[in-house]
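User: Predict the complex with zinc ion.
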Amino acid sequence: MSMNVANCPKCGRIFVKGFNEVCPNCIKELEQQYDKCLRFLRDHRGCTITELSEETGVSIRQITKFIREGRISIIHAPNMSYSCEVCGTQIRENTMCEPCRSKLVKDVRNNNEDEHRRKERINQDHNVTYNIKDRLQDRNK
Ligand SMILES: [Zn+2]
Ligand SMILES: [Zn+2]
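Assistant: Here is the predicted structure with zinc ion placed in the model:
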């Protein structure tokens, strides 16, 4: 049986990869960070994400992750917000702000419409490349 060994993306230590993406040490650390954030938020509902990060020593990035994963709820913390994945606007739900989301939806729709045409264009590009290659080979003969 081969073991799936990987480097932990957080600390670089080698660990046996199972269901978790990070090593057991980092999982433990994450749980402690999560506890700290939860406890601080419970006592300081009016804090911002920056205050929470400064008081707990947990990075804003990690706190954002907890919120996005749904582990930390900010429904009762009116001043908590985090950055939109795309433009950095402060938001309180989803991973993107409303403008970025509607733009993405529009882009996806456009992509679908263009897909057929794009595929044709790619085929044409390939043909052009082959033609040039053929011509170069002809010249070398
Ligand atoms: Zn680790
Ligand atoms: Zn945005």
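Residues 98-140 form the longest helix (43 residues).
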